[in-house]
Write a structure and sequence with these properties.
Antitoxin, 64 residues, mainly alpha
């Protein structure tokens, strides 16, 4: 499922620069990385169960 969000042109330009700097393949990947950092959700929290991260994200989205 995809959603459209509205941002000012200057915000889009900043996101484009960040996307290049972070070598993100999409805005979704960039925004998820930023959100994870701000929410302090790091891969290291999943320890040996790194594959669990995908399920965690899906489960969280289903609850919202």
């Amino acid at each position: 499922m995809s959603t459209t969000i509205t941002v000012k042109e200057t915000t889009r330009e900043k996101l484009e620069k960040l996307k290049e700097r972070e070598k993100a393949t999409s805005f979704d990947q960039l925004l998820r990385k930023i959100a994870d950092e701000k929410l302090e959700i790091h891969d290291s929290l999943f320890g040996k169960a790194k594959g669990m991260r995908k399920n965690f994200e899906r489960e969280h989205e289903e609850r919202v």
